[in-house]
Amino acid sequence: MPTTFYGINLRLAEGLQRPDGVPLYCTSIQEVQAVMKANKTARFKSFSSQAEAEAFSRLAADPGEGAAPPAAPSPSAAAAAATGAGGEKPSPYKNPSRPDFQEFRKLVESGDERGVVAAVARNPRYLISSGDTPALLREGPRHNSLHLAALRGRDAVCRTLLELVGDPRLFQRLYPDDAPEVSAGGCGVRGCTEDGDEVDNSPRRVAMAGCS
């Protein structure tokens, strides 16, 4: 029996009917990510009961809400760019810009679970670099998103990140032409919990202690 229910609000204007096939709630982050990818303006929130999640999903959009986030780059354009980038594997996603990474870091450090999931739904490169290693959000100590979430004590974000990087579908999105067994061999949880600097209070120890 699920203990967490994620309500999916499509931010529809008052009177508009919800499209068929879009669930009122999900019970896993992977399901949420799939819905967020297909519905760029969607928002989600976790609840302890199905009824609360469904009620949230049925709320009409606030007229004062800002514009929806931009869509992911088109597969053809991004793949063409990746093909000429020093022999990197073609992928429909390119690395986010430095300002984009800075905004993502703020989401992680502030504990914005919804923002983190939405960002990764738009572009998995927020977690996995073009070299198929964990994307670094702090270059000096080589901290990735999981390190920063653990160091800030953001347990919910830690768990979400572990679910996301442990899901082979993340790599299938990055490299849709790869065979499933190749996608399953990505950097995954182990890569994201590797130490940055080798110090006594290493990010790996903090991450595994705080997010297990």
UniProtKB/TrEMBL annotation:
Naturally occurring in which organism (per UniProt): Amphibalanus amphitrite
Residue ranges of the region described as Disordered: 62-99
Protein name: Ankyrin repeat and LEM domain-containing protein 2
Biased composition (Low complexity): 62-83
